[in-house]
Amino acid sequence: MTTITTIENVSQYEGEEIVIRGWLYHRTDKGRLQFLQVRDGTGLIQAVVFKKAVPPEVFALSKNLTQESSVIVTGTARADSRAPGGYELAVSGLEVVQQAAEYPIQPKEHGVDFLMQHRHLWLRSSRQHAILRVRATIIKTIRNWLDDHGFVNVDTPILTPAACEGTTTLFETDYFGEPAFLTQSGQLYNEATAMAFGKVYCFGPTFRAEKSKTRRHLTEFWMVEPEMAYATLEDVMDVEEEFVSAVVQTILREHPSELALLERDTTFLERIVPPFPRISYDEAVDILHREGFADFPWGEDFGAPHETTISEQFDRPVFVYHYPAQCKAFYMEAVPGHPKLSRSVDLLAPEGYGEIVGGGQRTASAELLERRIVEHGLLREAYEWYIDLRRYGSVPHAGFGLGVERTVAWICGLPHVRETIPFPRMLEKMYP
Ligand code: 4AD
Ligand code: MG
Q1: Which of 2.60.40.10, 3.40.50.1970, 1.25.40.10, 3.30.930.10 is the CATH number of 120-419?
Q2: Cα–Cα distance between 14 and 33 in angstroms, integer?
Q3: Ligand 1: distance of its center to the CA of 401 in Å?
Q4: Most exposed residue of 11, 72, 139, 345, measured as fewest CB within 10 angstroms of its CB?
Q5: CATH of 3-98, one of 2.40.50.140, 1.10.287.70, 2.30.38.10, 2.30.40.10
Q6: Which of 406, 407, 421 for a ligand 1 pocket mutation test, highest count of atoms within 8 Å of Cβ?
Q7: How many whole angstroms from 183 Cα to the centroid of ligand 2?
Q8: Torsion angles phi and psi, residue 36, rounded to 5
Q9: 359 Cα nearest atom in ligand 1
C-alpha cells in the first residue's frame, strides 16, 4: 500500500512512493515531459510525468489535463533544491477524479471585479491562499494569547435588542414581530461577563451597515474584544501593545514564505515590539496642525488621511487617547476634571493602515451612563440591564476591540480589506 499524504509532509517520504490528492494548478508541456504543478491546500508541488516512465494512457491523461482538474497523483518523492518546497514527485500513476471545464481564472491579469465575482474560485490562487493562511494563524494566536493570559472566552449574542456603537450603522431584522439588530460589538455583554469572570473576551462576526465604500470598511467583520474588571485605560494600552506585538511576531516566525509570496517588506513588522508611543488627542491635533491640516477643528474624529499623517510620525503603532466625548460612543468614561474628554483610546497602525483597535475605560457611574443614554437618543428600556451593572458592584473596567480584517491587511501589506476575509460583505456586494 502506498502512503497517502499531503504536500507539506512530503519531506518525510524522500525516496518513497506516495499519493497526493489535489488539483492541477498549472501545467507545462515539454514534449516527453509534462510538468504538473499540483496543489492540495497544504502546498504546491511539481509532479514530473516522464513519457518513458509511465503507461501510455497515463501520459495521455496528463497531457490533456485542464487547469483545476482534480487529480490523485502517485509518485516518488525526490529532493530538488530548485523546487519551491524542496521536493518534487516522479510520477508513476495518475487518476483524474474530474476533468475540469475551462477555468475562468487564467494566469493573466483579471480585473478585481471579475475576481470578486469569482471569489469562490479565486480562493484557490496562491496569493489568496497565503493571505487566508496568515488570517487563520492570526486568529489562532489571538485565542492562544488571551487564553494564556487569564482571559476567559465568553461569547456574546449576534441578535440584540439595542445599539452599541451608534444607531446609524445598525442592520435591522424582524424578530417575531419585534425589531432586532445584528450586533455591532459584543462589548456591552462583555461588561456583564467581566463582572462574573474578571477577564473575558468574545470573538465573532460583527455587523455595521456602513454606507462607506472605503478600502477598510466591511459590513460584516470579525472582532476580538477583551474586557477586564478592575482595569483602567492605561491597563488597556499595556495589554494591547503586548497582544498586538505577539500577533505580529508570531506571523513573522510562522509565515515567512507567505509574507515573501505577498512581497511584504517585513522590516516594518520586525519593529513591532512594546512599548508603543502614547499621545493624547490634543497632541495628535497639534501634529495635524503642523503637518498640513492647519484648520483641523478640535472635537472632530480623525479620518483616514489624518490617521495616516499622525501614524507617519512614528515607526510602530501609536496610541491616541482621550478623544473628545462627542466623537465616541455613549459608554465611555469621562476624564476626571475634563467632562468633554473621554477615557478612550485608538491604536493606529503604521504605513497608513489607520485604526486597527478601538477601546477604553467604561462609565462606572449609573448616573453619568443614564445621562449619556439620553444625550445619544437611545431607548433607555433596552439598556436597563446594562445600567444594572453600575448598581450591583460597579468597578472601574476597560477593554478593547481589534478588527481582524484590518489587522490582516496591515500585516500582509494589502491595499484593501476585501482580500482578508474568505467572502467579504461590503456595500453593494453580497455575492457569492
Ligand atoms: O472602534 P470600534 O467601533 O469599537 C468597538 O466596537 C468597541 N465596542 C470595541 C470594544 O471596546 N470592545 O471597532 C473596533 C475595531 C476597529 O478598530 C476596526 O479594527 C474594526 O473594529 N472595525 C471594522 N473593520 C472593518 N470594517 C468595519 N466597518 C469596521 N468597523 C470597525
Ligand atoms: Mg473606532
Answers
A1: 3.30.930.10
A2: 21
A3: 6
A4: 11
A5: 2.40.50.140
A6: 406
A7: 15
A8: -105, 120
A9: 11
Which ligand 1 atom is at minimum distance from the Cα of 227?
A: 12
Distance 346 CA to ligand 2 centre (A): 7
Instruction: Check if the beta carbon of residue 208 is closer than 8 Å to that of residue 169.
Output: yes
The DSSP H or E segment spanning 59 is: helix 56-64
Cβ 426 under 6 angstroms from ligand 1 = no
Q: Which amino acid makes up residue 249? A: Q
Joined together, the cell numbers standing for residue 82 give 530548485
Query: If you take atom 4 of ligand 1, which residue's CA is the nearest one?
Result: 358
| Ligand 1, atom 29: closest residue by C-alpha | 217
Beta partners for residue 229, in sequence order: 397
Cα distances from 191 to residues 120, 345, 374, 379, in angstroms, run 38, 17, 20, 19
Identify the pLDDT of residue 53: 95
Contact 362, 314 (CB under 8 A): no
C-alpha cell at 169: 450603522
Indicate the SS3 state at residue 296. Answer: coil
- Which mutation among 221, 318, 405, 417 tests ligand 1's pocket best, with the greatest number of atoms within 8 A of CB? 221
CB 236 within 8 A of CB 400: yes
Average confidence score pLDDT of the chain: 97
Amino acid, single-letter form, for residue 376: H
Atom of ligand 1 nearest to the CA of 210: 28
Distance CA 320, CA 282 (A): 9
Burial class (CB in 10 A: 0-12, 13-18, 19+), 249: middle
Burial of 220 (0-12, 13-18, 19+ CB in 10 A): middle
399 lines ligand 1 (CB under 6 A): yes
186 lines ligand 1 (CB under 6 A): no
- Nine-digit cell string for 37: 504543478
List the domain boundaries for the chain: 3-98, 120-419
Q: Is 228 in the pocket of ligand 1 (CB under 6 A)?
A: no
Low-confidence ranges of the chain (pLDDT < 70): none
pLDDT at 230: 98
Q: Where are the alpha helices (DSSP H) in 224-315?
A: 233-254, 256-261, 267-270, 281-290, 304-311
Q: Is the CB of 358 under 6 A from ligand 1?
A: yes
